[in-house]
Amino acid sequence: MSKFDPSSSMSRRTVLIAATGAVPLLALGATGAKAAKMSQSAVRYQATPKDGKQCSGCNLFVAPNSCKSVDGDIAATGWCALWVKKAA
Questions:
Q1: Where are the domains of the chain?
Q2: 25-35: per-residue pLDDT in tens?
Q3: Which helix (H) or strand (E) holds 24?
Q4: If you ran DSSP here, which 8-state letter would residue 33 be given?
Q5: Quick one: 1-88 is in which CATH superfamily?
Q6: For the range 41-45, what are the long-range contacts, defined as Cβ-Cβ under 8 Å and sequence gap of 24 or more?
Q7: Mean pLDDT of 42-49
Q8: Does pTM surpass 0.85?
Q9: Residue spans of beta strands (DSSP E) within the chain
Q10: With contact defined as beta carbons under 8 Å apart, do 67 and 60 qualify?
Q11: Are the C-beta atoms of 44 and 80 separated by less than 8 Å?
């Protein structure tokens, strides 16, 4: 039987994060002016609202046409999978 070797160069956590595809999600928690933004296609961005949700009502939207987490021009009437209701 082999046991996990703690001296190995890659931790179990690193392997699990990479295997689950969670690496792009780590960018969401990044702070600072140079935080990585995701592509519009990666977050299924569309320039029209979905189910009554649109970018102007999202906590990540930066008026007039930007987003804290998505790259490129963003329409206030758009929507993406990262949509988070704007705090009251």
A1: 1-88
A2: 554 555 555 67
A3: helix 23-26
A4: T
A5: High potential iron-sulphur protein (4.10.490.10)
A6: 43/69, 43/70, 43/80, 43/81, 43/82, 44/80, 44/81, 45/70, 45/74, 45/78, 45/79, 45/80
A7: 98
A8: no
A9: 61-62, 66-67
A10: yes
A11: yes
